[in-house]
Write a structure and sequence with these properties.
Number of domains: 2
Number of helices: 13
Strand order of the largest sheet: 7-6-5-8-9
Radius of gyration: 19 Å
CATH superfamily of the largest domain: Aspartate/ornithine carbamoyltransferase
Strand content: 5-15%
Shape: globular
Bound molecules: phosphoric acid mono(formamide)ester, norvaline
Distance between the termini: 18 Å
Order of helices and strands: HHEHEHEHEHEHEHEHEHHEHH
Length: 318
């Protein structure tokens, strides 16, 4: 069996709960496949790899990009996506996650879920007989980081050996970036204030993953140190979904962590800027940066579509 077939086989039927669960080769293969599907879509070549299949999408939090890119992605793959607001499901009235997973598995070929607890996604995956894809939890956002890596690769021509700086809250996006960079050989430097740094167990696991690729993982409180010599500068909102009541307190704590012209002066002259969006101009990023010539945030948003199509086509393949 050639290596492409064995990678396809190893991905078939799997869940995407965390990037940590995938080998560097599997992640590289997903990115290669995403690039291939992107080219096919741009050329108008049919690629109905999931013809007649259905994806259930459970949302317990708001979404623009995730909802639309998964739904459009399923359509382009020849399948169908079902938007399920968690509040409208019996889940909202106390039906268990396990039963919801067992039942949905009788109707659909895959489930994407956006919710609060990572343990809920894990429980769903344990009981649903079809692949479960993590569309964001409080802990992780793996689909976003596949799109981010695809975007970096397109703009920089490679991943391994680059330096990526993440400045801001040590949140779900930061955690998945730690895994994504560690798995692909990207040196990652995270600058967050004390008390808002990425979780220690995630950093430790990412450091283990980095051992396989030669990436380095640095955690600091100094944004200038993180950004120094960076090829890629990334930030995210200071208050994530579910933290709305901390918004005011966080504005003060994070003020020195804004990505602005002064901070990026220390990055490489050809650095690129990423943000998963939605963004708050004037808070985590200055308008001059997100709307400036180094920003690739809309390529990044587009790449959610291509990355997730690859994930669905590989995991949900029969
Ligand atoms: N980046 C991201 O996940 O966007 P949405 O919240 O709009 O889905
Ligand atoms: N960290 C943000 C990402 C939104 C896509 C949140 O969880 O709200």
């Amino acid at each position: 069996m050639n290596s492409t077939n064995s990678l396809r086989d190893s991905l078939k039927g799997r869940d995407l709960l965390s990037l940590h669960d995938f080998s560097p080769r599997e992640i590289e293969f997903m990115l290669d496949f995403a690039a291939e599907l992107k080219q096919k879509q741009k050329r108008g070549e049919p690629h109905e790899l999931l013809k007649g299949m259905t994806l259930a999408m459970i949302f317990q939090k708001s979404s623009t990009r995730t909802r639309v890119s998964f739904e459009v992605g399923m359509f382009q793959l020849g399948g169908h996506a079902l938007y399920l607001n968690a509040g409208d499901l019996q889940l909202g009235r106390g039906e268990t996650i396990a039963d919801t997973g067992r039942v949905l598995g009788r109707y659909v070929d895959g489930i994407m879920i956006r919710t609060f607890a990572q343990s809920d996604v894990e429980e769903l995956a344990e009981h649903a007989p079809v692949p479960v894809i993590n569309g964001l939890t409080d802990l992780l956002h793996p689909c976003q980081i596949l799109a981010d890596l695809l975007t970096v690769r397109e703009h920089k021509g490679r991943l391994a050996g680059l330096k990526l700086a993440y400045v801001g809250d040590g949140n779900n996006v930061c955690h998945s970036l730690l895994f994504g960079c560690a798995k692909t050989g990207v040196h990652i430097s995270v600058a967050s204030p004390e008390g808002y740094q990425p979780r220690e167990e995630i950093v430790a696991t990412a450091r283990d993953d980095a051992g396989e690729t030669g990436a380095t993982v640095t955690i600091t409180t100094d944004p200038a140190e993180a950004v120094s010599g960076a090829d890629v500068v990334v930030t995210d909102v200071w208050a994530s979904m579910g933290q709305e009541n901390e918004q005011q307190a966080r504005l003060k704590v994070f003020a020195p962590y804004q990505v602005n012209g002064r901070l990026v002066a220390g990055a490489k002259p050809d650095y690129i800027f990423l943000h998963c969006l939605p963004a708050h101009r004037g808070e985590e990023v200055a308008a001059e940066i997100i709307d400036g010539p180094h920003s690739v945030v809309f390529d990044e948003a587009e790449n959610r579509l291509h990355a997730q199509k690859a994930v669905m086509a590989l995991l949900m393949a029969k």
